[in-house]
Amino acid sequence: MSADCIFCKIVTGAIPCNKIYEDDDVIAFHDIKPAASVHFLIVPKLHIESLKDCDASHQALLGKVMLLVPKLAAKQGLAGFKTLINTGREGGQEVFHIHVHVIGGGPRAA
Ligand code: AMP
Ligand code: ZN
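# adenosine monophosphate complex -> structure
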């Protein structure tokens, strides 16, 4: 838990989200600025800043997140999807709490 992290606040419920999945380790919710008709984020509850900050102790957690990708994508009606992990400011990361983007379903309706 990091006091000024927006995704930690979503994990505790201090900030609302449009949640699609939650268990003891992970929460998933729709992106507030969707890049396609379906765009959700899978977020480990543990505050890890980025993929660069992961080590062997996070292996099971990362594996769990990756295996959730196709399951949650299917629940959102996606037959195929893009998976994105922005890492570091130079990698386009804006929220420094590790998360996986899952994007699909074509362009958003106007
Ligand atoms: P990244 O550039 O990988 O760090 O992406 C952060 C993503 O989080 C962006 O796509 C934002 O639209 C999304 N985001 C930021 N704040 C929220 C929020 N409160 N609820 C849902 N998504 C958010
Ligand atoms: Zn956090």
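# post-check
Residues 2, 5, 7-8, 47, 97 surround zinc ion (ligand 2) (CB under 6 Å).
The chain has one domain: 6-30+45-96.
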